[in-house]
Amino acid sequence: MSVASLRAELQQAPELFENVLARFFQENTERYAYGDLFEPLYLDITEFVTRRGKRIRPMLMLGSYRVFGGDRPFADHSLLRAALSLELLHSFILIHDDVIDQSERRRRLPTFHKLVEERLGKLQGAARVGENVALVVGDILFAMAVDTLRATDFHPAQRDTALSHFLRYISDTGAGEVYDILLGTRDIARVEESDIMRMYTLKTTRYTFEAPLVLGALLAGVDDDHLRELAELIEPVGLAFQIQNDLIEYHQFKGVDRLRQTDILEGKKTLLLRVAFDQLSDVDRSFLQLCLSTRTSNDASVSKIEQLIDKSGAVVLLTQRMEDLFQKSETALENSSFTPEQRDGLREAFALVKQQTQHTGTQ
Predict the structure, then answer these.
(1) CA dist., res. 123 & res. 117, Å (int)
(2) CA 242, chain centre distance (Å)
(3) What is the pTM of this model?
(4) pLDDT (tens digit, 0 to 9) for every residue of the chain, 363 residues total?
(5) Fold of 3-357
(6) Is the dihedral of CA 354, 351, 66, 77 positive or negative?
(7) How many CB atoms lie within 10 A of CB 153?
């Protein structure tokens, strides 16, 4: 199909998706009617998942399905439910990630564990209970995601293959989260750039970019060789977007509220920090290590980290690396075995995501 036709369909897709997302929770009210204790939690789950977001993953899946010849209309119930499974998976990951990071806000509203804590009022231990409940609710959303994909009416063999890929992407994301947690315990001098890149690939690239594009192509009937080729050319795109996300967060970090929660203040070992460390003198490296080891964030340590990152030139270096990765992916796409129409369609999908994420990241 032409890029213009794809663009027109994708412009209509968000409204179709939001409608099916709202109906999903209405239709499943009875299925999850576990009594008075659970009822307010179900309302919170509904509110959390249906919060307005970019819907990058479902939109990429729908776009990929059409690019690779899928003939179901975007209004098709099972096609939308397959896309919905990715958004449910995303919510599961966000809820667990927010507990791990002790985050308080998500899409400008309370994180799920904070919603539960607020419902408990002044109860002693409300924060711990909120986190515990959020972890279990995340598990429920994981089950919802798998069951939603399983219940679609695609050919059984096709659906089973999609489920197998889906579960593998979840495992990859979990492994990436483990890397993120454990790298956060290390001094920046002991964190290898290759480990950060592996963490980015597993935690973000796989389920944010590869999963929706591969699942969409798979459901459209693409063979295994082309699926592998698609996954290979997506990886540099995903890494480029993660670098872009780091740079966006750093610019926010440099804003008015520098003590707001960010990856840097949480002790996460980002590529920006590692590249900055590599570019600094021995004395400045020691200052950076000292600031990063400070348990309690204060304006002085935050200002010093900012000065050191700026001094290192890491932002400029990563901006260039990001552009190089986008170019690498473009070259791979141009040399791929996909048809000219498929290549144009993938470029359109990448452009759509780049436009949506260039100001506020990929969440």
Answers:
(1) 9
(2) 9
(3) 0.91
(4) 678 888 888 889 999 999 999 999 999 999 999 999 999 999 999 999 999 888 999 999 999 999 999 999 999 999 999 999 999 999 999 999 999 988 898 888 999 999 999 988 888 999 999 999 999 999 999 999 999 999 999 999 999 999 999 999 999 999 999 999 999 999 999 999 999 999 999 998 999 999 999 999 999 999 999 999 999 999 999 999 999 988 988 887 666 555 555 666 677 899 999 999 999 999 999 999 988 887 556 677 788 888 999 999 999 999 999 999 999 999 999 999 999 999 999 998 888 777 766 655 566
(5) Farnesyl Diphosphate Synthase (1.10.600)
(6) positive
(7) 11
